[in-house]
């Protein structure tokens, strides 16, 4: 049975820390609450002020459920009972224990988020001259899957999947059954290794969410929460999983990150869009132009494939270089998430309802009337200035189409101008499936 939350969140009585804990709980359970930008901003403050806080050093999957906090935030008794007693595994506990050691071989850490071009430039200078792997940071739920091969076998067989493999030794949520409906059941490879570990991001294609909601009377809103619901809960039919993707962004094969992607594709997996790249320091102004161009192009690739994204992952391509930068903290060196340009906090997307123009004595100006968007600052935006016809043509703006704009605090909403260039890639994901 697919559970639908009965209460409505009211955080007016919560402290800042309580809101943060609630945001982690909601993220884990696919409940709409904080935006990524709001969470990232608060988390960055926590890192600076309380670097050793347990919620900075651990995953949201390791958090406890706090019934008193949920009640204070507007959850009903039925909601609290459900979330406090939810089934955390869909196969026996002994099976979780059986594969725990193998899963810990692939323990993953968080990625350091960089939110200003100055921060990105400092990181890029430290990586200058070395081959990098740049990939799309998919806005999904983290999935780790294990394939094993015995000595007498000729292929690796899917065995186990979880949302994460934490250094604490826990296997938080066993999602083996549902992930088996998405990933390959087995594969053959000449590489002599017993365990193959897959690290990926799961989401539901956006154009299928209305179909899923209508079918199950749910209220899923975004690809990440829809994907989270479909891999963590029971009640969905096998045919529903054609609308769910798991894009690989890590595998324990290959000398380099990009080689790992190539191997994953040959084995039948879908990967995040990626490319190799070498940064040369030509000064800050040149860097800004270069990196924002990459951001626009990579995001457009994801958008065209129906992939919601929230950043660009930049890492050293050579895995031996990455190993040298491993630390005992929650974050390793050599891996960053650039959240600038169209991924900066304060970037919004809406649908154009109508394009209007204003004829003046010496010029014509254009505006887009959009579906209202409520910003993080509480302001509702309904109109975007398009300036002139060239802007409309260059960005392929039309009624019924999408428009991306930037808005922060009291400033005027600004159109995010798109690039017409294409983006050379080594690999990528499938197109979104139609409903």
From TrEMBL:
Domain of life: Bacteria
MF GO annotations: DNA ligase (NAD+) activity
Protein name per the record: NAD-dependent DNA ligase adenylation domain-containing protein
Ranges where the NAD-dependent DNA ligase adenylation domain occurs: 131-319
Origin organism lineage: Bacteria, Bacillati, Bacillota, Clostridia, Eubacteriales
Taxonomic source organism: Anaerotruncus colihominis
């Amino acid at each position: 049975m697919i559970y639908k939350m009965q209460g409505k969140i009211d955080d007016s009585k919560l402290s800042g820390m309580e809101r943060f804990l609630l945001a982690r709980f909601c993220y884990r359970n696919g409940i709409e609450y904080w935006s990524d930008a709001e969470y990232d901003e608060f988390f960055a403050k926590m890192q600076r002020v309380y670097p050793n806080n347990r919620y900075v050093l651990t995953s949201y999957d390791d958090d406890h459920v706090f019934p008193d906090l949920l009640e204070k935030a507007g959850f009903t008794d039925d909601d609290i009972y459900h979330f406090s007693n939810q089934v955390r595994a869909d196969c026996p506990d002994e099976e979780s224990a059986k594969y725990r050691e193998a899963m810990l071989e692939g323990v993953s850490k968080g990625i350091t988020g960089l939110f200003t071009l100055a921060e990105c430039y400092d990181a890029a200078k430290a990586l200058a001259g070395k081959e990098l792997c740049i990939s799309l940071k998919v806005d999904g739920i983290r999935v780790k899957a294990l394939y094993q091969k015995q000595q007498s076998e000729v292929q690796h067989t899917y065995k186990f999947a979880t949302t994460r493999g934490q250094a604490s030794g826990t296997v938080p949520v066993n999602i083996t059954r549902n992930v088996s409906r998405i990933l390959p059941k087995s594969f053959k490879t000449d590489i002599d290794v017993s365990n193959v570990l897959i690290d990926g991001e799961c989401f539901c294609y956006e154009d299928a969410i209305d179909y899923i909601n209508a079918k199950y009377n749910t209220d899923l809103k975004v690809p990440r929460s829809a994907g989270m619901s479909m891999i963590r809960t029971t009640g969905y039919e096998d045919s529903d999983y054609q609308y769910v993707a798991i894009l690989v962004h890590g595998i324990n094969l290959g000398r380099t990150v990009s080689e790992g992607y190539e191997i994953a594709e040959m084995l039948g997996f879908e990967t995040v869009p990626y490319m190799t790249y070498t940064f040369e320091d030509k000064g800050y102004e040149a860097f800004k132009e270069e990196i924002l161009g990459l951001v626009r192009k990579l995001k457009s690739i994801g958008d065209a494939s129906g992939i919601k994204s929230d950043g660009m992952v930049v890492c050293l391509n050579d895995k031996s270089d990455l190993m040298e930068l491993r630390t005992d903290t929650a974050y390793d060196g050599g891996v960053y998430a650039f959240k600038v340009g169209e991924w900066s906090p304060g970037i919004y997307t809406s649908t154009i309802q109508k394009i209007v123009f204003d004829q003046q004595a010496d010029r014509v100006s254009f505006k887009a009337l959009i579906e209202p968007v409520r910003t993080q600052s509480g302001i509702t935006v309904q109109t975007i200035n398009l300036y002139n016809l060239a802007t409309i043509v260059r960005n392929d703006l039309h009624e019924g189409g999408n428009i991306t704009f930037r808005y922060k605090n009291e400033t005027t909403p600004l159109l995010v101008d798109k690039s017409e260039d294409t983006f050379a890639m080594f690999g990528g994901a499938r197109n979104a499936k139609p409903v």
